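The instructor's notes for this session suggest beginning with a concrete chain rather than abstract definitions. Hand out the sequence below and ask the class to guess, before any prediction is shown, which regions might be ordered.
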Amino acid sequence: MPGENAVRSDRFSLWDRALFLEGSAMKAGITLFFLRSRIGARKKRGTGSVRIPFVVRFRGALALLLLVGASASFAEVFQFKADGMIGSRATGSEQIILSGNARVWSSSLLLEADRIVISGKNNRYLQCSGNVKGTDTKKGIYFTTSSLWYDREQKIARMEGESYLEDKDNGVIIKAHFIQYDDTAERAMLQVGVRIFKDTLVCRAEYALYQKKEKRLELQGSPVVFKEGDELRARRMWVNLDNNDVVMEGSVSGTIREKQGTSKK
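After discussion, reveal the predicted structure:
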C-alpha cells in the first residue's frame, strides 16, 4: 500500500491502551498475528505519545487479535478473527472491518457473521451483517438475525430483519422483525410481526415487551394469545410465563373450547 500510512502485515501500530503483542506465530498451519501498540516504545525513546493514523489490510489469512476495553465499565476482553481484515485509526474513521467467517467472542458471548465492523472509542460498537448469529452462555440466550448492532458499554443489542431469539433458561422462543435486547435489565423490546412460543402457549402482536427475570410478557397492537385451544384477544394483554396466566384489558373477546373429558352427561 503506497503512501506514509503503508505498513507491513507483521509490524504495525495500534492505538494506545490496547494490549497487543508484536510478531507472528504458526499454529495448525495458520498464521496468527499478535499486535502491540508502539506508543509505549515511542515514549521510551522520548518522542512523545502522538498518535499516527494508519490503515492495515489482511487478505487470505486468519487475523486474530484481542480487544480490551480501557473503560472500567466494559473491561472484558474480546477476541476476534476472520478471513480478512481492514483496520483504520485515522482520526474520525477509527474502525476495524472483519470479512468472511467473522467471529467476535468473550468469555460468555460469541457473535458470528459474514461481516463485522468494530468502531468507536475503545472499540465500543459492533455492527454485524449477513447470517448473523450469537450465543450468550451465561444468560442462556441464542439468536439469529439479518443485522445486529451492539453497544459493548451499555450492553444493548438491536436486531433488524427476520430475527429469532431463544431464551433457553425460560423455554421461550421469540420471532420478530425488530428486537432490542437490554442485557443488563434482561428485557427485550419486540416490534413488527411478533411471535412468542412457550410450551403450548402462542402469542402474537405487533409490539411486545419481554422481561426475562420476571418471566413476564406484555402485548400490544392487536394481540392474540392461543392457550390450550382457547383464543384470547384484547387491546392490551399481560402473560405470566411462569404459569401461563393471562390478564386482558380493553375490548376483551375470546373463544373458549371445551376440553375433552369435561363435558356433562
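Then share the key points. The chain is about 0% helix and 55% strand. Residues 88 and 94 are 5 Å apart (CA to CA).
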